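Protocol step 4 of 6: structure prediction from sequence.
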Amino acid sequence: MNLILTIAIAFLGSVIFYKLRIPAGALIGAIVFCAAFNILTNMGEFPFFMKTVLQAIAGAFIGQRVTHKDLAELRHTLSAGLIMFFSMVIYTVLVGLLLNKVTQLDFATSLVSAMPAGLSDIAVISSDLGANSTQATVVQTVRTLFAIILLPQLAFRICEFITKDKTALEQERAATRKLDTKPQEIRTNRNLFLTLCLAEGSGLLGKLSGIPSGALTFAVFAVAGQNIIRKNAFLPLYLKLAAQCLTGVLVGINVTIMDVQNMGLLIKPVLIVLLCSTFCNYFCAFLLHKVCKLDLSTSLFGSIPAGVSDMALIATDMGGDAPRVAVLQLVRYVGLFSVMPLVIKLLVRL
């Protein structure tokens, strides 16, 4: 019953925000309504295995947009991702030092709280790194919600008001809309079934591989291969909206009354992290736009420190080049979780 009620609340929020024409409204509406529901009742419930299912769907939406031309261009995006990764490592260390200096957080908790990475993954590794799991999770919860709900909206508005990027932005949004208006011979239930089975099958293999965000990564490559070779990859718009809604549930039910109660004790570190992550977002976006020559919308969406699948789904809605955004986000995510735990352990021991 709790599961049915949670999904119903999320669906209501998604419909309201989508009808209000809020960018990525299906995702944001579900997050807001589910978070409020869980805070008020503590009844939010959703099976965790759905994270793998939804990551695979997000990967499939990216993969069906990849063409031969994209393959050549993605090599340049990989180098941009490496630049962003090193920038994020430096950011984590500097903000961690700042938090430790001006707040009551210990050094390990400060560093973990500063990491621009996934919320659930942070909760898992924080105790292993000697950090206070509760404090780090509260800070990361607020940062993640801020990054998913507000930063994409700001990025979209910035692109709207910059003339030279308006055309590119509209082209990307038009390309997204065309995903649901492919030729009739491609928009068949058979192609939908094949694409979905391929995405979920490869996503499961990715999950079992142990690679960070493996479900999304494997699904991207599998469906991209299908689209390049057979040109029949197809997922309808309504499935993306449903995936956004359910992804919002996964984020929203992690917000508890305890998080709200602990906010008063962590106001200063939370504000510092929000300000610094916003600055980091725009600094990295400027760097990628000017140095790596990526368009501004892709630079902004690719630099937002949020979940890989969340940003992939948002980028397909709001104008970013989804394949490039996914590459940037994956390099950041995989790089941070490969390197930062070792860096944090080393710094704490010094």
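Step 5 (inspection) to follow. The chain has a mean pLDDT of 83.
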